[in-house]
Design goal:
By secondary structure, this protein is an alpha/beta fold. Helix content is 41%, strand content 15%. Bound molecules: adenosine-5'-triphosphate (ATP) and magnesium ion (MG). One of its GO terms (molecular function) is ATP hydrolysis activity.
């Protein structure tokens, strides 16, 4: 399964990505985290890994992305077709992975100087990486995105099996959740909301204010251990009950959609 995490800036996308990654490995799954945030650089710290090299290096070395995309457009090749080959968790070049305790981190790339314009190139690369990635039954991919819905507008959601919108108690988060909910029929994958950084009042307020509140599957609450890890850049604590509910819910729906029993270990 490929899970995309999106939401407003600072809502907790990277935190929830890391919590999901840790919980999945605790349940015996193999996990690759794909970092598609081209600006923020801290994901590796909360996963406890080193920063991986940019995947752009791999793809540019292999073949020009732009050329492949242009050919695909000219020849009417359907979107989502792997244009640069296929790979598995075992054949991703090890030099582009950073690992810690069963979680492997891959990063599309980071903007490091003022000449690196053209964000579409990074999103195209992430889409190609996901399209070419063939999963075994116990493989899980978690995609951390940067703020907003640009990834969805650029059709990255179509390369995923589910989208999780992280909603913190703010007007912007409510609006963004409404926007993604409105896109659900276009991306054809389940869209879930997880509430984050709430207290009892803001949780109740969000449940009331959010459109399509049936999408809410968990509430992480304001958590001092998470906040502390975020401050210090330490790996996140394991065993968060909200993350277990998220996994149970999305695995159950995914198994029902694929017509097989959920894979629990
Ligand atoms: N449940 C929580 N309780 C307390 N603090 C939290 C919680 N979730 C996230 N945080 C803190 O909020 C801050 C932002 O979290 P995070 O970096 O995960 O957000 P983000 O959505 O990935 O941000 P960006 O849009 O900048 O990538 C961090 O300092 C993190 O530790
Ligand atoms: Mg982030």
């Amino acid at each position: 399964m490929k899970l995309m995490i999106c939401g407003k800036g600072g809502s907790g996308k990277s935190t929830i990505t890391a919590l999901l990654a840790r919980q999945y490995t605790a349940e015996g799954k193999r996990v690759v985290v794909l970092d598609t945030d081209v600006s923020n650089v801290g994901l590796h710290r909360i996963l406890g890994t080193a920063a991986p090299p940019d995947l752009t290096g791999y793809f540019s070395g292999k073949r020009s992305m732009r050329e492949a995309m242009r050919n695909a457009r000219q020849n009417g090749i359907p979107r989502g077709t792997p244009l640069l080959g296929t790979w598995t968790f075992d054949t991703i070049p090890p030099e582009y992975l950073s690992e810690n305790r069963g979680v492997a981190l891959v990063s599309v790339g980071k903007i490091r100087d003022a000449t690196q314009f053209g964000k579409g190139r990074w999103v195209g690369l992430a889409r190609q990486f996901l399209a070419g990635l063939v999963l075994a039954a116990d493989d899980r991919v978690i995609i951390d995105t940067d703020a907003g819905v640009e990834h969805l507008a650029r059709k990255m959601g179509e390369a995923c099996d589910a989208i999780i919108v992280v909603v913190d108690p703010s007007y912007e988060s409510i609006c963004l959740a409404a926007t993604v909910s409105g896109m659900a029929d276009q991306v054809h994958v389940p869209v879930y909301f997880v509430l984050n950084k709430t207290d009892v009042h803001s949780s109740a307020f969000l449940r009331n204010a959010l459109p399509d509140s049936f999408r809410i599957i968990a509430d992480f609450g304001q958590d001092r251990a998470i906040l502390g890890a975020g401050f210090t850049g330490c790996p996140l604590p394991a065993g968060n009950p909200a993350v277990m509910s998220v996994i149970e819910m999305i695995e159950g729906v995914h198994a029902a959609q694929s017509g097989c029993a959920p894979l629990r270990t």
